[in-house]
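Incident review: delayed structure delivery

Summary: a single-chain prediction request sat in the queue longer than the usual turnaround. Root cause was a stuck worker, restarted by the on-call engineer. No data loss occurred. The affected request and its eventual output are reproduced below so the record is complete for anyone auditing the incident later.

Affected input:
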Amino acid sequence: MKRIATVLAAIALLAAPAMAAAQTIDPQADLAPQAQTLVEAENAEHLKGLKRVFIPSFQVHFVTESKASAQINGIQVITGAPSNVTIKLTGVEDARMQALADGLYARTVQQLTDAGIEVVPLEQLKAHPAFAELAASGQPAPKEEDASAGKGKFFSTQGLPLHYLDEVGFIQKIVLFGKKPEDAFLPLGSKMGAAFSAGGVQMQEERLAKDLQAAALKVRITVLGGQLHVSNDFWTGKNISAVAAASFPPLVNRMAFVLPDGRKARLSLKEGVHSGQLGELVNVTSTASQAGDVARNVLSVALMLGGQRGIGYGRSQDFEWRADAPDFESVIASFQPGITRMFTLRLQELVK
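Output delivered after worker restart:
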Protein backbone atom coordinates (compact mmCIF):
# COMPACT_ATOMS: atom_id res chain seq x y z
CA MET A 1 0.00 0.00 0.00
CA LYS A 2 2.81 2.37 0.82
CA ARG A 3 4.34 1.80 -2.62
CA ILE A 4 0.99 2.57 -4.28
CA ALA A 5 0.78 5.79 -2.30
CA THR A 6 4.25 6.80 -3.47
CA VAL A 7 3.38 6.13 -7.10
CA LEU A 8 0.15 8.12 -6.86
CA ALA A 9 1.95 11.03 -5.23
CA ALA A 10 4.47 11.03 -8.07
CA ILE A 11 1.63 11.09 -10.62
CA ALA A 12 0.13 14.03 -8.76
CA LEU A 13 3.34 16.02 -8.92
CA LEU A 14 3.76 15.33 -12.63
CA ALA A 15 0.16 16.02 -13.53
CA ALA A 16 -0.34 19.07 -11.30
CA PRO A 17 -1.22 21.96 -13.60
CA ALA A 18 0.87 25.07 -13.79
CA MET A 19 -0.46 28.41 -12.61
CA ALA A 20 -3.38 29.46 -14.78
CA ALA A 21 -2.50 32.17 -17.25
CA ALA A 22 -3.10 35.25 -15.09
CA GLN A 23 -4.37 38.48 -16.54
CA THR A 24 -1.69 41.13 -16.52
CA ILE A 25 -1.77 44.73 -17.64
CA ASP A 26 0.87 47.32 -18.32
CA PRO A 27 -0.26 50.43 -16.41
CA GLN A 28 1.62 52.64 -18.86
CA ALA A 29 0.10 51.12 -22.00
CA ASP A 30 -3.17 51.83 -23.81
CA LEU A 31 -5.68 50.15 -21.49
CA ALA A 32 -8.77 50.58 -23.67
CA PRO A 33 -8.64 47.03 -25.14
CA GLN A 34 -8.19 45.46 -21.69
CA ALA A 35 -10.99 47.60 -20.27
CA GLN A 36 -13.42 46.05 -22.75
CA THR A 37 -12.62 42.50 -21.66
CA LEU A 38 -11.66 42.87 -18.00
CA VAL A 39 -14.27 45.33 -16.69
CA GLU A 40 -17.87 44.26 -16.14
CA ALA A 41 -20.56 46.95 -16.26
CA GLU A 42 -23.83 46.18 -14.45
CA ASN A 43 -26.92 48.35 -14.96
CA ALA A 44 -24.80 50.34 -17.37
CA GLU A 45 -27.83 52.23 -18.69
CA HIS A 46 -28.15 54.01 -15.33
CA LEU A 47 -24.81 55.73 -15.89
CA LYS A 48 -25.83 57.49 -19.09
CA GLY A 49 -25.49 61.25 -18.71
CA LEU A 50 -23.52 61.02 -15.46
CA LYS A 51 -21.36 64.10 -15.04
CA ARG A 52 -20.83 64.57 -11.31
CA VAL A 53 -20.05 62.24 -8.37
CA PHE A 54 -19.18 62.44 -4.69
CA ILE A 55 -17.15 59.80 -2.87
CA PRO A 56 -18.65 58.86 0.53
CA SER A 57 -16.66 55.61 0.76
CA PHE A 58 -13.14 54.69 -0.36
CA GLN A 59 -11.94 51.35 1.00
CA VAL A 60 -8.59 49.72 0.43
CA HIS A 61 -8.55 46.13 1.68
CA PHE A 62 -5.16 44.47 2.08
CA VAL A 63 -5.59 40.70 2.44
CA THR A 64 -2.51 39.78 4.44
CA GLU A 65 -3.34 36.09 4.79
CA SER A 66 -4.79 34.38 1.72
CA LYS A 67 -6.44 30.98 2.07
CA ALA A 68 -7.63 28.34 -0.37
CA SER A 69 -8.88 24.81 0.15
CA ALA A 70 -9.85 21.92 -2.08
CA GLN A 71 -11.54 18.61 -1.53
CA ILE A 72 -9.58 15.80 -3.15
CA ASN A 73 -11.94 13.94 -5.44
CA GLY A 74 -9.80 12.36 -8.16
CA ILE A 75 -9.05 8.65 -8.39
CA GLN A 76 -11.46 6.60 -6.30
CA VAL A 77 -8.74 5.36 -3.94
CA ILE A 78 -8.27 8.88 -2.61
CA THR A 79 -9.75 9.26 0.85
CA GLY A 80 -11.24 12.69 0.16
CA ALA A 81 -9.54 14.60 2.99
CA PRO A 82 -9.52 18.39 2.47
CA SER A 83 -6.28 20.23 1.79
CA ASN A 84 -5.53 23.86 2.63
CA VAL A 85 -2.90 26.36 1.56
CA THR A 86 -2.26 29.64 3.35
CA ILE A 87 -0.04 32.53 2.23
CA LYS A 88 0.78 35.22 4.79
CA LEU A 89 2.16 38.60 3.76
CA THR A 90 5.03 39.82 5.94
CA GLY A 91 7.21 42.91 5.91
CA VAL A 92 4.58 45.61 5.19
CA GLU A 93 3.33 47.60 8.18
CA ASP A 94 0.03 49.48 8.62
CA ALA A 95 1.57 52.92 8.08
CA ARG A 96 2.64 51.98 4.55
CA MET A 97 -0.77 50.54 3.79
CA GLN A 98 -2.46 53.73 5.00
CA ALA A 99 -0.13 55.85 2.88
CA LEU A 100 -0.99 53.70 -0.13
CA ALA A 101 -4.73 54.17 0.52
CA ASP A 102 -4.26 57.94 0.70
CA GLY A 103 -2.31 57.98 -2.56
CA LEU A 104 -4.79 55.75 -4.39
CA TYR A 105 -7.63 58.08 -3.42
CA ALA A 106 -5.81 61.09 -4.86
CA ARG A 107 -5.02 59.24 -8.10
CA THR A 108 -8.62 58.05 -8.46
CA VAL A 109 -9.98 61.59 -8.09
CA GLN A 110 -7.48 62.83 -10.67
CA GLN A 111 -8.37 60.06 -13.14
CA LEU A 112 -12.08 60.77 -12.80
CA THR A 113 -11.44 64.46 -13.38
CA ASP A 114 -9.31 63.68 -16.43
CA ALA A 115 -12.18 61.54 -17.75
CA GLY A 116 -14.54 64.53 -17.57
CA ILE A 117 -16.34 63.45 -14.36
CA GLU A 118 -16.59 66.21 -11.76
CA VAL A 119 -15.84 65.08 -8.19
CA VAL A 120 -17.50 67.05 -5.40
CA PRO A 121 -14.75 68.49 -3.17
CA LEU A 122 -14.34 66.78 0.21
CA GLU A 123 -14.90 70.05 2.04
CA GLN A 124 -18.32 70.49 0.43
CA LEU A 125 -19.27 66.86 1.12
CA LYS A 126 -18.23 66.98 4.77
CA ALA A 127 -20.07 70.25 5.35
CA HIS A 128 -23.42 68.63 4.57
CA PRO A 129 -25.44 67.55 7.65
CA ALA A 130 -26.21 64.15 6.12
CA PHE A 131 -22.50 63.36 5.96
CA ALA A 132 -22.21 63.67 9.73
CA GLU A 133 -24.98 61.08 10.09
CA LEU A 134 -23.27 58.85 7.54
CA ALA A 135 -19.92 59.13 9.30
CA ALA A 136 -21.42 58.40 12.73
CA SER A 137 -22.64 54.98 11.56
CA GLY A 138 -19.27 53.92 10.12
CA GLN A 139 -16.82 51.33 11.44
CA PRO A 140 -13.43 52.31 12.92
CA ALA A 141 -10.59 51.99 10.43
CA PRO A 142 -8.33 50.19 9.91
CA LYS A 143 -10.40 47.14 10.79
CA GLU A 144 -9.22 43.55 10.54
CA GLU A 145 -11.56 40.87 9.21
CA ASP A 146 -11.09 37.12 8.89
CA ALA A 147 -13.19 35.69 6.05
CA SER A 148 -13.27 32.43 4.11
CA ALA A 149 -10.85 33.74 1.47
CA GLY A 150 -8.40 35.17 3.96
CA LYS A 151 -7.60 37.62 6.73
CA GLY A 152 -6.89 41.28 6.06
CA LYS A 153 -7.39 44.90 7.03
CA PHE A 154 -9.81 47.46 5.63
CA PHE A 155 -8.42 50.98 5.42
CA SER A 156 -10.32 54.17 4.72
CA THR A 157 -8.90 57.58 3.84
CA GLN A 158 -9.56 61.31 4.11
CA GLY A 159 -11.78 60.79 7.15
CA LEU A 160 -14.39 58.92 5.10
CA PRO A 161 -16.49 56.38 7.04
CA LEU A 162 -15.98 52.65 6.63
CA HIS A 163 -19.22 50.87 5.74
CA TYR A 164 -19.19 47.25 4.66
CA LEU A 165 -21.06 46.40 1.51
CA ASP A 166 -21.75 42.79 0.53
CA GLU A 167 -21.00 42.93 -3.18
CA VAL A 168 -23.45 40.15 -3.99
CA GLY A 169 -26.27 41.89 -2.14
CA PHE A 170 -25.63 45.29 -3.76
CA ILE A 171 -26.79 44.15 -7.19
CA GLN A 172 -28.47 40.75 -7.34
CA LYS A 173 -27.25 38.43 -10.07
CA ILE A 174 -29.30 35.64 -11.60
CA VAL A 175 -27.13 32.56 -12.05
CA LEU A 176 -28.77 29.70 -13.95
CA PHE A 177 -25.77 27.40 -14.00
CA GLY A 178 -22.63 27.08 -11.93
CA LYS A 179 -21.71 28.43 -8.55
CA LYS A 180 -23.31 31.65 -7.36
CA PRO A 181 -20.90 34.57 -6.84
CA GLU A 182 -19.78 35.26 -3.29
CA ASP A 183 -18.06 38.10 -1.48
CA ALA A 184 -15.56 35.74 0.12
CA PHE A 185 -13.60 38.59 1.73
CA LEU A 186 -16.31 39.51 4.26
CA PRO A 187 -17.15 37.16 7.16
CA LEU A 188 -20.77 36.23 7.77
CA GLY A 189 -21.14 38.62 10.71
CA SER A 190 -20.00 41.62 8.68
CA LYS A 191 -22.26 40.60 5.79
CA MET A 192 -25.22 40.49 8.15
CA GLY A 193 -24.26 43.85 9.62
CA ALA A 194 -23.89 45.31 6.12
CA ALA A 195 -27.35 44.05 5.17
CA PHE A 196 -28.84 45.48 8.38
CA SER A 197 -27.34 48.96 7.87
CA ALA A 198 -27.63 49.12 4.07
CA GLY A 199 -31.03 50.79 4.04
CA GLY A 200 -30.03 53.62 6.36
CA VAL A 201 -26.72 54.20 4.62
CA GLN A 202 -28.35 54.34 1.20
CA MET A 203 -31.01 56.77 2.44
CA GLN A 204 -28.27 59.14 3.61
CA GLU A 205 -26.38 58.69 0.34
CA GLU A 206 -29.52 59.41 -1.68
CA ARG A 207 -30.14 62.55 0.36
CA LEU A 208 -26.59 63.69 -0.32
CA ALA A 209 -26.96 62.78 -4.00
CA LYS A 210 -30.12 64.87 -4.39
CA ASP A 211 -28.72 67.90 -2.57
CA LEU A 212 -25.33 67.75 -4.31
CA GLN A 213 -26.83 66.82 -7.68
CA ALA A 214 -24.31 64.01 -7.98
CA ALA A 215 -24.15 60.23 -7.81
CA ALA A 216 -22.58 58.50 -4.82
CA LEU A 217 -19.44 56.67 -5.94
CA LYS A 218 -18.28 53.99 -3.52
CA VAL A 219 -14.80 52.62 -4.28
CA ARG A 220 -13.39 49.32 -3.05
CA ILE A 221 -9.88 48.07 -3.78
CA THR A 222 -8.86 44.58 -2.62
CA VAL A 223 -5.22 43.53 -2.80
CA LEU A 224 -4.20 39.96 -2.09
CA GLY A 225 -0.84 39.22 -0.53
CA GLY A 226 -0.08 36.36 -2.90
CA GLN A 227 -2.34 34.66 -5.43
CA LEU A 228 -3.92 31.22 -5.01
CA HIS A 229 -5.67 29.27 -7.74
CA VAL A 230 -7.67 26.06 -7.36
CA SER A 231 -7.75 23.91 -10.49
CA ASN A 232 -9.20 20.55 -11.47
CA ASP A 233 -7.22 17.64 -12.88
CA PHE A 234 -8.53 14.27 -14.09
CA TRP A 235 -5.88 12.26 -12.25
CA THR A 236 -5.31 14.24 -9.09
CA GLY A 237 -8.63 15.91 -8.42
CA LYS A 238 -8.16 19.50 -7.29
CA ASN A 239 -4.81 21.24 -6.95
CA ILE A 240 -3.83 24.62 -5.56
CA SER A 241 -1.22 26.75 -7.28
CA ALA A 242 0.36 29.82 -5.73
CA VAL A 243 2.37 32.78 -6.96
CA ALA A 244 4.24 35.50 -5.07
CA ALA A 245 2.53 38.59 -6.44
CA ALA A 246 0.19 41.43 -5.61
CA SER A 247 -3.15 40.15 -6.89
CA PHE A 248 -6.43 41.98 -7.53
CA PRO A 249 -9.46 39.61 -7.51
CA PRO A 250 -12.71 40.12 -9.44
CA LEU A 251 -15.94 41.62 -8.05
CA VAL A 252 -14.30 43.10 -4.95
CA ASN A 253 -12.30 45.59 -7.01
CA ARG A 254 -15.09 47.91 -8.07
CA MET A 255 -16.77 51.30 -8.38
CA ALA A 256 -20.35 51.16 -7.08
CA PHE A 257 -22.79 53.95 -7.95
CA VAL A 258 -25.98 55.06 -6.19
CA LEU A 259 -28.00 57.57 -8.21
CA PRO A 260 -30.15 60.30 -6.60
CA ASP A 261 -33.28 58.25 -7.39
CA GLY A 262 -31.85 55.12 -5.73
CA ARG A 263 -30.89 53.26 -8.90
CA LYS A 264 -27.61 51.34 -8.72
CA ALA A 265 -24.80 50.53 -11.12
CA ARG A 266 -21.39 48.95 -10.75
CA LEU A 267 -18.10 48.61 -12.60
CA SER A 268 -15.91 45.76 -11.38
CA LEU A 269 -13.12 43.46 -12.45
CA LYS A 270 -14.55 40.54 -14.40
CA GLU A 271 -11.35 38.53 -13.98
CA GLY A 272 -8.49 38.72 -11.51
CA VAL A 273 -5.23 40.36 -12.48
CA HIS A 274 -1.83 40.35 -10.80
CA SER A 275 1.32 42.41 -10.82
CA GLY A 276 3.79 39.66 -11.64
CA GLN A 277 6.31 38.21 -9.21
CA LEU A 278 7.23 40.29 -6.19
CA GLY A 279 9.20 39.08 -3.19
CA GLU A 280 9.64 35.41 -2.35
CA LEU A 281 7.42 32.59 -1.18
CA VAL A 282 8.85 30.64 1.76
CA ASN A 283 7.48 27.36 3.09
CA VAL A 284 6.94 27.71 6.84
CA THR A 285 4.82 24.58 7.35
CA SER A 286 5.73 23.20 10.77
CA THR A 287 6.39 19.73 9.35
CA ALA A 288 8.44 20.94 6.39
CA SER A 289 12.01 19.72 6.13
CA GLN A 290 14.81 22.25 6.26
CA ALA A 291 15.61 21.42 2.65
CA GLY A 292 12.10 22.40 1.61
CA ASP A 293 11.82 25.64 3.56
CA VAL A 294 12.77 27.91 0.67
CA ALA A 295 10.04 27.60 -1.93
CA ARG A 296 9.99 28.83 -5.48
CA ASN A 297 8.30 32.13 -6.29
CA VAL A 298 5.82 30.18 -8.39
CA LEU A 299 4.82 26.75 -7.15
CA SER A 300 2.17 24.10 -7.50
CA VAL A 301 1.00 22.40 -4.34
CA ALA A 302 -0.04 18.82 -5.14
CA LEU A 303 -2.90 17.84 -2.88
CA MET A 304 -2.55 14.10 -3.33
CA LEU A 305 0.18 13.08 -0.94
CA GLY A 306 1.07 9.66 0.48
CA GLY A 307 1.34 9.20 4.23
CA GLN A 308 0.18 7.59 7.39
CA ARG A 309 -3.54 8.20 6.79
CA GLY A 310 -3.86 5.63 4.02
CA ILE A 311 -3.23 5.54 0.30
CA GLY A 312 -3.40 9.29 -0.14
CA TYR A 313 -4.56 12.33 1.75
CA GLY A 314 -4.51 16.10 1.71
CA ARG A 315 -2.64 18.28 4.15
CA SER A 316 -2.24 21.91 5.08
CA GLN A 317 0.65 23.96 3.76
CA ASP A 318 1.71 27.34 5.12
CA PHE A 319 3.79 29.88 3.23
CA GLU A 320 4.99 33.40 3.90
CA TRP A 321 5.07 35.93 1.10
CA ARG A 322 8.06 38.02 2.10
CA ALA A 323 7.78 41.28 0.22
CA ASP A 324 10.26 44.11 0.52
CA ALA A 325 8.13 47.01 1.82
CA PRO A 326 9.39 49.73 -0.59
CA ASP A 327 8.96 47.38 -3.56
CA PHE A 328 5.47 46.44 -2.42
CA GLU A 329 4.55 50.10 -2.08
CA SER A 330 5.98 50.94 -5.49
CA VAL A 331 4.16 48.09 -7.26
CA ILE A 332 0.76 48.88 -5.72
CA ALA A 333 1.13 52.61 -6.32
CA SER A 334 1.96 52.09 -9.99
CA PHE A 335 -0.14 49.02 -10.81
CA GLN A 336 -3.53 49.62 -9.14
CA PRO A 337 -4.15 52.99 -10.86
CA GLY A 338 -4.10 51.02 -14.11
CA ILE A 339 -7.17 49.13 -12.88
CA THR A 340 -8.91 52.38 -11.93
CA ARG A 341 -7.97 53.74 -15.33
CA MET A 342 -9.79 50.83 -16.98
CA PHE A 343 -12.88 51.68 -14.91
CA THR A 344 -12.78 55.34 -15.96
CA LEU A 345 -12.32 54.37 -19.62
CA ARG A 346 -15.50 52.26 -19.47
CA LEU A 347 -17.25 55.05 -17.58
CA GLN A 348 -16.38 57.54 -20.31
CA GLU A 349 -18.10 55.30 -22.85
CA LEU A 350 -21.20 54.69 -20.76
CA VAL A 351 -21.97 58.27 -19.77
CA LYS A 352 -22.20 59.47 -23.38
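Verification: The chain is about 30% helix and 35% strand.
Action items: add queue-age alerting; document worker restart procedure.
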